[in-house]
Write a structure and sequence with these properties.
The protein is an alpha/beta fold. It has 14 helices and nine strands. Strands 1, 2, 3, 4, 5 and 6 form a six-stranded parallel sheet that branches. Strands 7-8-9 form a three-stranded parallel sheet.
Length: about 350
């Protein structure tokens, strides 16, 4: 496999990253994604260098810092920041609302920005707010963040709803009706199964890995992966190191002082210093998760969701979005066909967008 072959496949493909928090740097720190700031994981120059066609930018309101009511305003601020960023840089990037938009922008050699909402607490228990987010461009919503909200249980919090409440099922049905993708990353296991029972559309896990390879609570079991595949959905492998490597997860569990593996862009210091002796996984271990998810869910049901923007550490070789071609090279070296690589890079996500949002 030559470097030129990898380049040819990668840069002719539509590459979609289904989760980045980098828009927080615009909202909280006044940075510009058009500028290649040192340390930033997603910028326009890095997207170009890495062949990234479309970036889903997450609007996230930290539930530990913001009330639900205040979180609505913050979510709108994030969405507006994406839209204004596109307006300021019309020669480089445009908002995308459908798979057709992404394909068109690829043909025009432009970048595509897609808005998404991270955490159902951000609708403040109001379907009207959900619809307003959709009208502003949001094309998926994670039903929870790690926290449990008033209608859905999160994966890292005490359950209060036995999965989805009756209103939670109404939220899922309304998302189906308006054409917003239901994202099941971050949800509790019971919430996952209630969602699969309720929705009539394919779902997305925008940034989750396989628990068979790494036992982090945020990763998904084989039964869950299989169910997403059977529902024609997509699970997007993430680069968060402790979701990738079981060795690293166990290392962190054994530390008395935890490194800042993730951070809020409102924090004074953005990145933590590496902890001495902490062994980061390699990008090849991300492909191990892709291999496993392909084996369980099927080649048509796996994508990529970096979670760049708020992760303080990355797998070696995947320091930012300019490095995406290493994944293509690794998949090709493992025997994936060109067509199958293109599916993982973006075509599977586009199919889910077409199925849920429409053409």
């Amino acid at each position: 496999m030559t470097t030129q072959q990898v380049q040819d496949v990668h840069f002719s493909s539509i590459v979609v990253d289904t989760h980045s928090d980098d828009i927080g740097w615009v909202v909280d720190r006044g940075e510009e994604l058009a500028e290649d700031t040192d340390g930033r994981q997603v910028t326009f120059p890095k997207m170009r260098e890495g062949g990234v066609t479309a970036q889903f930018f997450a609007a996230w309101s930290n539930p530990r810092r913001w009330s639900q009511v205040a979180g609505v305003r913050r979510t709108i601020d994030f969405i507006d920041a994406v839209r204004q960023t596109c307006d300021r840089n019309r020669d480089q990037i445009e908002m995308a609302y459908t798979a057709a938009d992404i394909r068109r922008l690829k043909a025009e050699d432009k970048l595509a920005a897609v808005v998404c909402v991270e955490g159902g607490h951000s609708i403040d228990d109001d379907l009207g707010v959900l619809r307003a987010y959709y009208d502003l461009g949001a094309r998926y919503m994670t039903l929870t963040h790690n926290n449990t909200n008033n209608w859905a249980d999160g994966i890292a919090d005490e359950p209060r709803n036995d999965g989805l409440s009756d209103f939670g099922r109404d939220v899922v049905r309304e998302m189906d009706r308006i054409g917003m993708i239901v994202d099941i990353s971050h949800v509790a296991v019971k919430t996952f199964w209630d969602t699969m029972e309720t929705t009539e559309n394919p779902v997305m896990a925008s940034h989750s890995n396989a628990s068979s390879l790494c036992g982090h609570v945020r990763n998904m079991s084989n039964d869950q992966l299989r169910a997403v595949g059977e529902g024609n959905g997509v699970v997007c492998a993430t680069f968060v190191p402790e979701f990738v490597s079981e060795e690293m997860r166990l290392q962190i569990d054994g530390l008395e002082t935890l490194p800042a593996m993730a951070f809020d862009t409102q924090q004074k210091e953005p990145f933590a210093e590496p902890v001495k002796g902490l062994k980061l996984p390699s990008y090849t271990e991300v492909v191990d998760h892709i291999d496993h998810m392909v084996a369980v869910a099927g080649i048509d049901h796996v994508g990529l969701g970096s979670d760049f923007g708020v992760i303080g550490f990355t797998p070696t070789g995947l320091e930012d979005c300019s490095k995406f071609p290493v994944l293509t090279g690794e998949m090709l070296s493992r025997g994936y066909s060109d067509a199958d690589v293109r599916k993982v890079l973006g075509e599977n996500v586009l199919r889910v967008m077409e199925d849920v949002i429409g053409q």
